[in-house]
Write a structure and sequence with these properties.
9 helices; Spore Coat Polysaccharide Biosynthesis Protein SpsA, Chain A; alpha/beta; single chain; 5-stranded mixed β-sheet
Length: 217
């Protein structure tokens, strides 16, 4: 029923936990597709079923994974995020509403106060602007994805581009997904969000994602 699409790029450190969290919903998953961007750290050897390879571009990788899938529903999942143990029960009602796309509430794998602040900001962003990010995962039917123009084949802001197309067709799921805080620990809990906000503003202003990617790093 569900094809899980995971774009990867040197994700050997985090991918095992992401894959392990899928096990409670094995009866709902018909295929797991790893769409890799030429990893050199052993990521490809971790692929449990189907592995496809292509140039590094998260939007392009996800699009390729979708093209290789056969299931009517897609769960698009980042390689450093972990689904809650109860996720099968959480998404079952959503599978009965294919006219909507669904996303999880964001939670960082950190006990810092800054993490809780960013989670609150993300919740506000989703409620006010209907703008969940890719690290919140996305459950969407292939029919709705096709209706909305398909998955954007861009290297950055692909999640934002799709969310803007879906708008009022997005619905939150009553559970949180756990995502790595490593990029914030490394880039700074203040500096990294400001950089993200700057990149988002540039995208909304019309700058090409390829150009923004050079700024984002």
């Amino acid at each position: 029923m569900i094809a899980v699409i995971i774009p990867t790029s040197n994700a050997a450190k985090t991918l095992p936990a992401t894959l392990a969290a899928l096990k409670p919903g094995a009866n709902l998953i018909s295929e797991i597709i790893i769409s890799d961007a030429g990893s050199t750290d052993g990521t490809q050897s971790l692929a449990p079923e189907k592995l496809i390879s292509g140039p590094p571009s998260r939007g392009g990788q996800i699009r390729a994974g979708i093209a290789a899938s056969r299931a009517p529903f897609l769960l698009i999942l980042h390689a450093d995020t972990v689904l809650p143990e109860t996720w099968p029960a959480v998404i079952e009602p959503a599978l009965k509403a294919p006219q909507y796309a669904h996303y999880f509430r964001l939670r960082f794998a950190s006990d810092k106060a800054a993490a809780r602040i960013l989670e609150a900001i993300a919740a506000l962003r989703c409620a006010a602007a209907k703008l969940p990010y890719g690290d919140q995962a996305l459950l969407i039917s292939k029919s709705l994805l096709a209706e909305s123009g398909g998955y954007p084949d861009i290297p950055l802001m692909e999640d934002v581009a799709l969310a803007r197309r879906l708008r009022n067709r997005l619905r939150p799921l009553p559970a949180a997904i756990l995502t790595s805080a490593e990029k914030y620990e490394r880039g700074g809990w203040l500096r990294r969000p400001l950089k993200n906000a700057c990149c988002l503003s540039l995208y909304f202003a019309g700058m090409r994602p390829e150009t923004i990617q050079k700024i984002y790093g």
